[in-house]
Amino acid sequence: MKEVDYMKNKKILKLSLFIAISIFIIFFLSFSYTKYKIKNAIKIVKLKYEEVEVYKKITLKNLIKEINGELISNHYIDTTKLGKQKIKFEYITTENIKVPYEVEINIVDKTPPIISQLDNVTITVGEDDNISESLFCGDNYDNNPKCFIEGNYDVNNVGVYPLTFVGIDSSNNKSTHKFTLSVKEKSKNKNESNNIKPILYEDIIKKYKTNKTKIGIDISHWQGNIDFLQLKKEGVEFAYIRVGRGDGIGNDYVIDSKFKQNIEGFNKVGIPIGVYFYSYANSKKDAKKEAEWVLKQIKNYQVDLEIVFDWENWNLYQDFNLSFYNLTEVSNTFVKVIEKAGYKGMLYSSKNYLETVWYPVKYPIWLAHYTDKTNYQGKYKLWQLCNNGKIKGIEENLVDINIMYE
Questions:
Q1: DSSP label at residue 94
Q2: Could you tell me which residues come within 8 angstroms of residue 337 by beta carbon, excluding any fewer than 6 positions away?
Q3: Which among 29, 54, 124, 356 has the fewest CB atoms less than 10 Å away?
């Protein structure tokens, strides 16, 4: 009986071994045949571009001009770093063979720096710093493009000096603009001032109020003590309050001296509010800290509208060591922290910088453009149309007036 079992087990073992070897041979032959097919498959891939501009939004499908088959998947190409880049992908050929493929592209920067296009810059004798504050220079990719003035001038002597402003990035893209520097004597008229004619809030309502718009204001400590109930009577439908600001690059944050008074006042009379923070961030780390600070300041109040990232340090731009792309990433970081906490985020900027500096963002825009009718072509939720508004309830200063679109 034991011998019969032994023989039976031996036969089973031999059969199992035969099956295993057969499976291995079949697998090996199949694998070898697949490799042979892939190796000898006809592969035709031609690119539309061998060079791609840095930060260009382009997918694998957009990159390919001709292919003898169908891509298995499509994805965006990483174009955030200059230099040659290998892109690996798979596709099914017209012979129904799945093949791997690799192409190489070169990420390049052919965009010159953005520089001020002012035709005239005027300073008084001795005000050397005012020249750099009047001239803006920045780049899409470089954190520190070379920016300088060509020509001779003397800030200590009255005169008119023809000069050229120059910006050069690391890819040797160059921007130039000729301008005139006028150095004038200091004014002896102590009463000289700019008389700004105020725009009445009631006139803005008459002109811009519809069933699809709301009219409101934005304020800070500059507006002094406010009569909130009077503002409601005047038709203020919303307000954005400055919660605070940075105190220079890398320094602490300063709460607006009227923030508590303002937010409590608007909450009390039932006017919906948002808040904005005047940022000095020059890194994503700083932006995250700013957003967290703002969230702490507003946690005990009703905030129905957006929390706004307000970055306006254009006259000091080179001090921040930020490319336009990295500045947008700073803004994105601030808003991500805000939205993660359950609030809505927004970016505030002027028409000029929205068109020339900021990369597209996925959150609402607050447009600053002081005109009767803006020609800004991008999307925006808020339009700050003036900074010389006048309304009963704010007596100490003029105020910014805004239109909200629904």
A1: T
A2: 287, 288, 291, 292, 295
A3: 29
| H or E element in which residue 31 lies | helix 2-40
Tell me the helices (H) and strands (E) count for the chain, helix number first.
9, 22
Residue 190 burial (CB count, 10 A): 6
Q: Which two tokens stand for residue 381?
A: 């939720």
| Residue pLDDT, tens place only, 40-75 | 788 999 999 999 999 999 999 999 999 999 999 999
Please choose, from the candidates 302, 299, 298, 300, the residue with its C-alpha nearest in 3D space to the C-alpha of residue 277.
298
Q: For 314-373, give the secondary structure using H, E and C.
A: HHHHHHHCCCHHHHHHHHHHHHHHHHHCCCCEEEEEEHHHHHHCCCCCCCCEEEECCCCC
Enter the tokens of residue 371.
């005109």
Residue 150 neighbours by CB distance under 10 Å: 10
Q: Which residues contact 385 (CB under 8 A, 6 or more apart)?
A: 204, 208, 369, 370, 371, 372, 374, 401, 402, 403
Q: How far apart are CA 134 and CA 140, in angstroms?
A: 20
User: What percent of the chain lies above the pLDDT cut of 70?
Assistant: 89
Q: What are phi and psi of 396, to 5 degrees?
A: -75, -30
What pLDDT was estimated at residue 193?
46
Do residues 126 and 147 lie in contact, with contact meaning Cβ atoms separated by under 8 Å?
no
Specify the long-range contacts of residues 68-75, CB closer than 8 Å, at least 24 apart: 68/42, 68/43, 68/44, 68/93, 68/94, 69/93, 69/94, 69/99, 72/98
For 304, the token pair is 């129905």
